[in-house]
Amino acid sequence: MTGVAAPVATAAGAFEAVRRRRSVAKVTAAAPDDTELLHLLSAAGTVADHAALQPWRVIALRGDARARLGEALADAAGLVGDDRAALAAKPLRAPLLLAVAARRHEHPKVHGWEQDAVAAGVAHTLSLLLDEAGWGVMWRTGPHVRTEPVAAVHGLAPDEHLLGWLYVGGVPEGVSRVRHRAIDAAAVFTSLA
Ligand SMILES: Cc1cc2nc3c(=O)[nH]c(=O)nc-3n(C[C@H](O)[C@H](O)[C@H](O)COP(=O)(O)O)c2cc1C
């Protein structure tokens, strides 16, 4: 994490904000505070939600909490030595990790997969809003995301399962905002009449 760049808010429409979003793998030590996070989450949390179950929760990890997560990942992997140190350091790549947990409620009509779709929608929307606000974001998971040591660090209830973490930080100077991946919409679109 080098070269702290101040976030620059943009006032683009939704289409432009979505089109220009891209993940930022290497971020600086700058990060949004909880007040800003709550502001953005109050918008991200309005995604379509069958029966308004609000089947999700966000947990912010800063400071030593990231190191505890690293140790939990290494415990889950059963690693020792240099391999352990390398895995344990991964959460330190950003100053702020936002864990998004899907929380499945028992409901007679709304199946679990529908609730997971809501939680994923919140994560995508929060990621987009952070990007639009000028922060660098990358959604990451890994093979140990749903292990017991990792759940314990977050204090998850038995009905909560992580969808991963939004790694958040400042955008280093010179990072390109040019979209690198074109979408061939016609290849994945079918129109029935
Ligand atoms: C649920 C989920 C988990 C992901 N996990 C990882 C990950 O662990 N490591 C990684 O390099 N990219 C991961 N990605 C992909 C990146 O977040 C990102 O989308 C990808 O690098 C493409 O960049 P773009 O978002 O700018 O198109 C994940 C994406 C999603 C939606």
TrEMBL record:
It comes from the Bacteria. Keywords: Flavoprotein, FMN, NAD, NADP, Oxidoreductase. Pfam families: Nitroreductase. Gene3D superfamilies: NADH Oxidase. Residues 18-169 form the Nitroreductase domain. Belongs to the nitroreductase family. This is Putative NAD(P)H nitroreductase.
